[in-house]
Design brief:
Layout (H helix, E strand, L loop, with lengths): L33 E5 L5 E4 L21 E6 L14
Bound molecules: zinc ion (ZN).
């Protein structure tokens, strides 16, 4: 889990954008800037949109299971207060 100090700086998103539920493979293009967590080990990375996700050799799992990244915190790079909360 990611940590935060002050809850005023984060807000729960209620949007249904597919980016919240999609798993991304190593080296795929990052769709939105934010914090992503590996489905199989819990390791987290901070990624910028349009960059590639970390390569396959970023980390290895002691047990079987692919490295798969899913968005857990969507960075508000636009400053738009409704960012991440728009129903789609
Ligand atoms: Zn992992």
């Amino acid at each position: 889990m990611a940590w935060y100090k002050n809850a005023d700086n984060v807000v729960q998103a209620h949007g249904t954008e597919s980016v919240w539920s999609t798993y991304y493979k190593p080296a795929e293009t990052v769709p939105v800037s934010g914090i992503y967590r590996c489905k199989n080990c819990g390791k987290e990375v901070t990624c910028n949109s349009d960059d590639p996700f970390p390569p396959q050799n970023h980390h290895q799992h002691p047990q079987a299971g692919a490295v798969l990244w899913r968005l857990i915190v969507w960075t508000n790079t636009s400053g738009n207060q409704s960012h991440g909360t728009v129903q789609s």
